[in-house]
Design a protein that fits this description.
The chain is α+β, with helices and mostly antiparallel strands. The chain is 41% helix and 18% strand. It contains 12 helices and 19 strands. The model has no long low-confidence stretch (mean pLDDT 88).
């Protein structure tokens, strides 16, 4: 019965993702549709998704349909621009009346406007119900990886990072102003850290190199990192292997480590090193579970497989830097403003020649769907999806306002040029230009989608399972 429930839950999650994605597309295209109705334009088709319709119905002279390629949608308006080659329609049998540049601008702008209005509506909902604040507030370094660029630069555990490349930081991760994001989004060949160190009267300026994780050609490039971790709130225990000394001793996922043999730890890596140094000797643990303090004793054992392993407990140690920030209620304008800032940061990072962020880090429909699916599975998933709706609709509005043919901003640009020169751009050259730009956009979408799919491969755990003696 549990398997059936799990399958049903997955189906519901996928359905929720598809419906939310379709809602976003529908509202954007509805803006174009209603504006075209208002300005008296001829409307041939209103279709969600591209490609040959898998469902269609004609009502009042307008063909409504659902395409088979789940990426976007369109309203076919032959008086706006010649789009038959892209949308699959037929050229009108007789010339249609010309419309004014103002009509074109209003109809083109209505889509991004409706997307922004949906973002504000979702922002109002988030304002009311709230959203989780995922944030690591500490700016103190708890771990510096041995041999890392940070260690080479002289950064130490206990240092407090106050600025990166001259820009003040706030927290370790979870916002554009945090340390992690500052490293990832940094530009240039080096990263300058301003740190406060106990015993020093003035902040220290330390310059570090960076490295990026190696990935396969079909995956996204790695992001910048220097090898530091935040000061942790506590060490959480979990990933207990069946039949292991940890399971036999009574450990449970979610236990918090207080001490081992009376020694306290503020670094999960140091706790693991202590286990290795102890060997096969008994270890007395003090832990907390659901607010109660418990004492457990476990003795590391050499597993039967894989061969060559030393004594182990079969227990995972995880630093827990996130503190419970609770549910916050930001205003809708603040949410939209933050989304616009994130959008601007992304675009400028992609185009900057000295940034490690590139086109390959963008997400297509598959990546967006995977992100929504992951959000729904998290605690307060429905709140997270509402917050994501704000970000996604702002992104959709901004991207569509870019002045490229086939995008809404391109239609507005062409209408402005028509007003300036007193005549529309010739149909044939415009159709060729739109086809070229459409092919470029489709190629870009296929490229980022290949990364969305590629990131799902190559991360599996291919290690041999750990098996402990039965006794």
């Amino acid at each position: 019965m549990s398997t059936v429930s799990s399958i049903f839950q997955v189906i519901l999650l996928i359905f929720a993702v598809v419906m939310s994605f379709n809602l976003i597309i529908f509202v954007h295209e509805l803006g174009h549709f209603l504006a075209a109705k208002w300005r008296g334009l001829q409307i041939d088709r209103f279709q969600i998704w591209f490609g040959t319709p898998i469902w269609k119905k004609t009502i009042g002279g307008v063909q409504y349909g659902l395409g088979w390629i789940p990426a976007g949608g369109f309203v076919a308006l032959p008086q706006m621009a010649p789009m038959e080659a892209l949308e699959g329609g037929e050229k009108p049998a007789k010339p249609l009346p010309n419309i004014t540049p103002l009509d074109k601008i209003i109809v083109a702008f209505a889509g991004p406007l409706f997307s922004m209005l949906l973002a504000l509506l979702a922002g109002v909902a988030v304002w009311g119900v709230g959203k989780p604040k995922d944030f690591i507030p500490s700016q103190v370094i708890g771990e510096v990886v041995e041999g890392s660029p940070a260690e080479t630069a002289g950064i130490r555990a206990g240092d407090k990072i106050v600025a990166i490349n001259g820009k003040p930081v706030n927290g370790f991760a979870g916002s554009l102003d945090s340390i992690t994001e500052g490293i990832i989004l940094s530009k240039g060949k080096q990263i300058e850290f301003m740190v406060e160190r106990p015993g020093e009267t003035k902040p220290l300026k330390l310059v570090s190199e960076f490295k990026t994780a190696k990935t396969q050609w079909f995956q996204r490039p790695g992001l910048r990192q220097v090898g530091i971790g935040p000061e942790i709130d506590h060490i959480e225990l979990g990933s207990i292997i069946k039949g292991s000394p940890a399971e036999k001793a009574g450990f449970k996922d979610g236990d918090h480590l207080v001490s081992m043999n009376g020694q306290k730890f503020t670094d999960d890596a140091a706790a693991v090193a202590f286990i290795k140094q102890t060997g096969a000797q008994p270890i007395e643990f003090e832990i907390t579970r659901e607010g109660k303090t418990l004492k457990l004793t476990a003795t590391p054992q050499v597993p039967e497989s894989p061969a060559g392993k030393g004594p182990m407990l079969g227990l995972g140690f995880y630093g827990a830097p996130y503190q419970n920030q609770g549910i916050i209620h930001p205003g809708p304008i603040a949410q939209v403003t933050d989304s616009l800032r994130m959008m601007w940061t992304t675009i400028t990072s992609v185009v900057a020649p000295d940034s490690s962020i590139g086109v390959g880090h963008l997400s297509g429909p598959v990546g967006i769907a995977k992100m929504q699916y992951a959000l729904l599975q998290m605690e307060d998933g429905w709140r997270r999806i509402l917050a994501f709706m704000v970000l996604f609709n702002v992104n959709l509005a901004v991207l569509n306002m870019m002045p490229f043919p086939v995008l809404d901003g391109g239609h507005i640009t062409l209408a402005i040029l028509e007003k300036i020169f007193g005549r529309p751009v010739k149909a044939k050259p415009l159709e060729i230009l739109q086809t070229v730009c459409a092919l470029a956009l489709i190629s870009l979408m296929l490229f980022v989608t290949s990364k969305d799919i590629g990131d799902g491969f190559g991360h599996g755990d291919t290690r041999e399972p750990i098996v402990f003696p039965a006794n």
